[in-house]
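Predict the structure of Crp/Fnr family transcriptional regulator.
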Amino acid sequence: MLGEKNLLNFLRSLTSFSEESYALLQPALEERELKKNDFLLKEGEVCSSLFYIVDGYCKSYYEIDGEIKNTGFFFENEIATNIQSFGSGEKSKFNIIACETMTVVLFAKEKLFEIAKQSQEVEALGRSCIRLYATKQEELLTVFQLYSAQERLEYLENKRPEILKRVSLSQVASFLGVKRETLSRIRRRRMSR
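Done. Here is the predicted structure for Crp/Fnr family transcriptional regulator.
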């Protein structure tokens, strides 16, 4: 597997994880190559995987009346998923799509759950992955509920600069919930200070 070393390092950053548990986990893992605009998850599907990103990035978004509303960007050494659909088996209300060529490792839900019954380390790992994802999403939710557009931009500059470096201005504007022109004005104002 191309991203095996990075994946193992990532797993060990979340919880203590032995070589034996990693070997046990193998049947639940599948490496996949995606092209730009390939879907990891489509609205209306049940999310049956956690997606560990080896290379490239993806975004989550809603399509409302033909307009794209970006809700998240996920980069190397991060997990992308629909936590609600993954946990409950409900159909996803949003899409996750590759924004460039990507390599991901899929953690298949059913196999992961079966292996977790045999290994406390794998069970702890699953909980840690979900907790990490949920914590990041909750932080973003708080930022978007409490901060102005300018403060949200400052948050990205300080906490998620990879978004501003790799994502187009129009995509970032959609993510921040403003028009591209508004984002350009905010950036010009900040630069002129």
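The beta strands are 29-34, 39-41, 49-55, 58-64, 67-74, 79-80, 95-98, 102-108.
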